[in-house]
Inverse folding.
């Protein structure tokens, strides 16, 4: 990966080992798909980042400085790549107490774009996610639960796992949101108790009249007419298998993928 | 702060901006009190660090290399200081998935020892801590809940705040464990749902026959005969006030402080 580190909007050579992002996961991040130096949905990502920093009481980083760092890195990536933006509260403060005047650190980095995949096979994860309304929805840096859930399997045939919360409601995959077609509606778990409110999930809830948030049990998900995953790097991914249940490719999923590709050409896909 | 960074046991000049400690809080830490280049309770701290890395599936760092880095830093601190050891899973892995062969990163740093304090005043925190048995007790790097709880007050008269979990059981202070004298026994909250199992708490449970773990409500804590906080930097701190309740200094707390100072001279205190 190539990376640029900013402190208070200025490029610095290294990460301060006293940064609160390392010490406490005291920050947020965004992962964007880039095509020909154009990041998909910059505004949606930047606005979510600001909602996260505001919620944690971290001063907003300079958008101009972050955009400049992103542009520098993207110049070296003529094709598709993934752009990651981490924003922390910066160094300092005694212990957990946030410093009165924090100076945010931003780490921008580029990574190879993932290879395209067809309909994906999923498993049920055993690691439950904790219920913490104060942090729910935010893409913050406290991600040990995701790491533990993702560490549950090695089988390369399994693309991702579906996670439930400690009260057994379905939340999402470890790295994508989940939609289930139930009675003609596209239901996605509410994320006011845990989970990350993804960018494509937000677009779908805004743009698809039959999409809605709901509480979903594992049984309801297993009995859905169709499932798909979505995130800002992969777009929409049809689900072929979850545990023992299998689904043929549903035309309603393909229709949503087409709608997404029209709204955002970064998500054009090859129809098989 | 002075810091030394180790990757796979060797000193490196800088922290990799792709380190999973920053990306996901994928690691653990220890905070030790040092007096005249002697860290208090090294073995207890090192063993807890190893329990944490084992629990997260992070390879154990080299104790020899970490001790050497600590010794180098402590040489520059002739009096008392605080030594912090962070151990992360290191850089790499695609997304949340841990790399098959991780190379741990260790960041060792020294910080000024805090000024001594007398009996302390506490508040009740509003931020609840989430219930996550898979991570409970471990001193891992996902500490946004502590940061949010500690950000609730600015009043320098308030030393720390007492936190409850999302099911309203008392857990601890934001940066110390809590003991309550109830019916002649020293009860401390069980930490199998959330919280950090502190080193002094562990010593007390091992060495004090009347100390035990229990579920404690806010009412039970408020009605206790005495309270104290404990952590590995402060030792035992008598509580003078919690919310509206006040306590005179209880001789049983002073007796425990003396016992601790005999077991570990780093915790000698001035009796007033």
């Amino acid at each position: 990966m190539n990376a640029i580190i900013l402190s208070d909007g200025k490029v610095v050579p290294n990460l301060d080992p006293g940064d609160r992002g390392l010490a406490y996961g005291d920050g947020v991040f965004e992962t964007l798909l880039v095509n020909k130096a154009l990041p998909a949905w910059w505004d949606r990502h930047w606005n979510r980042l600001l909602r996260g920093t505001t919620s944690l009481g971290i001063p907003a980083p300079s958008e101009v400085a972050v955009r400049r760092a992103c542009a520098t890195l993207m110049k070296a990536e003529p094709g598709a790549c993934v752009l990651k933006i981490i924003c922390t509260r910066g160094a300092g403060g005694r212990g957990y107490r946030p410093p009165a005047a924090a100076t945010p650190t931003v780490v921008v980095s580029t990574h190879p774009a993932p290879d395209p995949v067809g309909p994906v096979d999923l498993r049920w994860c055993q690691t439950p996610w904790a219920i913490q309304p104060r942090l729910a929805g935010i893409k913050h840096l406290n991600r040990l639960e995701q790491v533990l859930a993702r560490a549950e399997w090695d089988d390369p045939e399994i693309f991702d796992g579906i996670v439930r919360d400690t009260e057994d409601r379905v939340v999402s995959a470890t790295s994508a949101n989940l939609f289930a077609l139930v009675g003609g509606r596209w239901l996605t778990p509410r994320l006011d108790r845990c989970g990350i409110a993804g960018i494509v999930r937000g677009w779908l809830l805004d743009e698809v009249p039959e999409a809605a948030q709901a509480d979903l049990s594992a049984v309801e998900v297993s009995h859905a007419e169709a499932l798909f995953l979505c995130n800002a790097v992969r777009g929409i991914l049809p689900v072929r298998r979850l545990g023992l249940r299998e689904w043929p490719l549903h035309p309603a999923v393909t229709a949503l993928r087409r709608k997404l590709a029209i709204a955002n050409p970064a998500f054009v896909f090859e129809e098989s």
In short: The mean pLDDT of chain A is 96. Chain A touches chain B through 54 residues (CB under 8 Å). Residues 42-56 of chain A form the longest helix (15 residues). Chain A is about 25% helix and 30% strand.
